[in-house]
Design a protein that fits this description.
Distance between the termini: 20 Å
Order of helices and strands: HHHHHHHHHHHHH
Shape: globular
Structural class: mainly alpha
């Protein structure tokens, strides 16, 4: 339950969006951010998460109405809550905030609001590196989900191959993925590879060869780092993703992309690719966990 003031400010945010009134949206976001910060400092995580959800929904609504400044302000508000949740070791709230960046960024990308999508992706990229360095695996997975969802949405907008936003998402995922492998965060490494594979599938649908080649290179780098750390599941997922990309690109006569994936696949030591039932079940479990997180965040 919201307090009366919280409910009033949430309504002010949505009503202001409907009326195109930027100042009203800013007032609502500032209020909700201050309240959310207070809840985090008081260790009231469920209440803080409600504020995060409200800010996310206001940000998405602003993006849908083409209110760029309001959507950016929502991301900035979430950044403040993210910093506070990290300081207070509120992992549930931190995951909720990270997924919210993805939700706003995805909506913005679908509305061709490139600046908002770029900001959300950049914030996620920095957050992912920090989470991986601190060995916070679930938070790193949340970053991978958000970046992947933004990346898929940008790719489907048929921007020039390869658009700046697509490149940012691929680059950030690649950097986070390499860090997760180096830190032996195997579930997170697999999660990044899964999102890159989904981005590749979206790019193949749009015949974006350069994008697919870039993704194949990122998957190869993550897989090679995983190979050095003896992370069987991450190596298997990298090889499986590259095999799928190679096959699907070939069937669409995207020869450059198919060759890039094949060359990346050939860089692995076949003896290190353990393709047994236990590995496959583990990867599927990670995939389902990620789907659940994203569905719960939308």
């Amino acid at each position: 339950m919201f307090s009366r003031d919280e409910d009033r400010m949430v309504n002010l945010g949505f009503n202001s969006i409907n009326e195109g009134f930027e100042e009203g949206v800013s007032e609502a976001l500032n209020f909700l951010t201050e309240i959310g910060t207070g809840y985090l400092n008081e260790k009231k995580e469920p209440e803080a998460e409600k504020m995060v959800i409200s800010i996310k929904e206001i940000g998405k609504a602003a993006a849908l109405r083409g209110m760029e400044n309001a959507a950016i302000n929502a991301i900035r508000a979430l950044e403040r809550l993210l910093q506070c949740s990290i300081e207070q070791n509120m992992h549930g709230a931190t995951v909720r905030v990270l997924l919210s960046f993805g939700a706003i960024g995805k909506t913005a990308a679908e509305q061709q609001m490139e600046m908002v999508a770029r900001l959300a992706a950049s914030v996620l990229g920095k957050s992912g590196n920090t989470a991986a360095l601190l060995n916070r695996e679930k938070e790193t997975i949340a970053v991978a989900i958000g970046l992947g969802e933004i990346g898929k949405a940008v790719t489907r907008m048929r921007f020039p191959d390869i658009s700046e936003n697509t490149a940012i998402c691929v680059s950030c995922l690649g950097d986070v993925g390499k860090l997760t492998a180096q830190k032996s965060l195997e579930e997170a490494a697999v999660g990044v590879e899964l999102m890159l594979q989904e981005m590749a599938a979206a790019a193949l649908q749009e015949n974006l060869q350069n994008t697919v080649r870039s993704i194949a290179s990122s998957i190869e780098e993550i897989g090679k780092n995983a190979e050095e750390e003896n992370m069987e599941n991450a190596v298997l997922q990298a090889a499986s993703a590259l095999q799928t990309i190679m096959s699907n690109a070939g069937s669409r006569y995207l020869n450059d992309a198919s060759i890039a994936a094949r060359l990346a696949l050939e860089s692995f030591n076949e003896l290190d690719i353990i393709n047994d039932e236990a590995n496959i079940k583990k990867i599927e479990a990670i995939r389902e966990m990620m789907r659940g997180l994203w569905v719960d965040s939308k």
